[in-house]
Amino acid sequence: MRVLILGGTREARELAHNASGERGFEIVSSLAGRVRAPLLPEGEVRVGGFGGAEGLRDWLVADDVAAMVDATHPFAAGISANAAAAARAASVPLVHLRRPRWVQQARDRWVRVPDLAAAARETAALGARVFLTIGRQGVGAFAGLDDQWFLIRAIDPPEGALPPRHELLLARGPFAVEDESRLLAEYRIDLLVTKDSGGDQTEAKLAAARAAGIPVVVVDRPPLPEGARIVESAGQALDWLRETRLRREGSDRLE
């Protein structure tokens, strides 16, 4: 059974590794190509877009894809919407793999906001020295903040407008709590801004902020398409693929 994994996350790589080693699956992983040196999953890999929902639908049909897993970043709303539309049009089963959201703990000083524009407004009111950890996309939402100084951490340099007072730190997780605490102290950070990406790769910054008593602006995830089927781990996604394969084999026998 040919399976397309829309990837780029650790969960996508884990799923590709486990499914590729199991008889009965032919795995193709697709990366958007937005990171210069991505960590490649096991098996066949394609890089680049499909040309929207219609292009993805055509690719699913042409490549005889029997199931699709959207294991993209929780904030890749456009890709997830295209995946849902393409899956419906091509009659291909789809599941969205999303790691659980972070859970606020005692002593956390979180301010949840719906989007980056709201995060920028809260930042203007709450902080003077800001640790901005939203990736390289969306940094422009903070470009108009002249009074704040920003430490901007991303894997690749952001494109477009940046805040006038900033320092860029290029790094890839996972990060340790001790290192994050040292970073907050060294740069005298008084506000952390992050997306609710979930997972343990970058969760250490939340623990460091908690220990330091620093407020955190947390951008909520965009909603998944209506009616989306969701699993929360690579293991659950693999179970779903097995069930889908069994249904497919049963249908083939009936025919």
How would you briefly describe this protein structure?
By secondary structure, this protein is an alpha/beta fold.
Structure write-up:
This protein is an alpha/beta fold and 255 residues long. It is built from seven helices and twelve strands. The protein has helices at residues 10-20, 52-62, 77-90, 116-126, 177-186, 204-212, 234-254, and strands spanning 2-6, 26-31, 44-47, 67-70, 94-97, 110-113, 129-133, 149-154, 166-170, 191-195, 216-219, 230-231. The chain has a six-stranded parallel beta sheet with strand order 3-2-1-4-5-12, with helices on both faces. A six-stranded parallel beta sheet has the order 6-11-10-7-8-9, with helices on both faces. α5 (177-186) crosses α6. The radius of gyration is 20 Å and the shape is elongated. The mean pLDDT is 93.
Structural class: alpha/beta
Strand order of the largest sheet: 3-2-1-4-5-12
Helix content: 25-40%
What are the segments in which pLDDT stays under 50 over at least 5 consecutive residues? none
User: Shape from CA axes?
Assistant: elongated
How far the N terminus sits from the C terminus, by CA atoms, comes to 17 Å
Mean pLDDT: 93
Largest sheet: 6 strands, parallel
Order of helices and strands, N to C?
EHEEHEHEEHEEEHEHEEH
What is the number of helices? 7
